[in-house]
Write a structure and sequence with these properties.
This protein is an alpha/beta fold. It has one domain: Rossmann fold, CATH 3.40.50. The relative contact order is 0.15.
Amino acid sequence: MAYFNYQEHRLFYQQLGEGSRTIVLLHGILMDTDVNRSLGQDLAKQGFKVLLLDLLGHGLSDKPDDISVLRMDKYADQAVALLDHLGIKQAVFGGLSLGADVSMHAYLRHPQRVQALMLEMPVLEHAVPGVVVLLAPLLMATRFAPGLVRPVSRLLRKLPKRDKVAWDSLRTIFANDPDAIGSVLSGTLVGPIAPTKAERQSIRVPTLIIGHPNDALHPFTDAEKLSKQIPAAQFVAAESIFELRDRPARLSNIISQFMTEAWQPKLKVA
């Protein structure tokens, strides 16, 4: 568990495992490193060096009110800055939801640093209705009624974790201070979210895409469509949005195999 400096801010990260094959795993919006910890531990046992990062505004990293650094593209720069801090040339970038989109932006902004991509439930065009329905009310509440949200946040911070992905994820999201929630949501919404279709088609590294059925915020059709836009993409359908955290064996094996192949000598992608 450690911190590094990015511009005038501090970011928290944790390293699991050792070795020359590095994987950076990124969390979803308003979540933290815990959401990827189990997967990271599994990959570390397979001989990978796994880096779990709290992006600015999340987890144990600084929570600035400057929304210009709380955008998808700026998050991508923060993830690459972790590689710079550790003297690592390249890594596989992966994550869920926000973390998936940030990973794509990392490739688009720093293609020479990205060995491959692992994208779980990316946020693309069909996600817009879900984003508006689920996140807009939360943003409005934190901006215009923080006095009502803050007591709930304090209460949730006092409640213990239960090692249940649904409970722990919701607890993490709503335990954030309302000012931090408002800044993160504002930064995400004012900055670029999904790369454009042309940008997605320009991705030239091996890519594993995991889609979830019955997920309003991350429609299955978005993940499936993305797999057809990225030339070297492999698509896997999860049984549910909780499979990788509650019953991880099948997907963990697929991810581990993908990571192993990603670190073999690169083949040219047409």
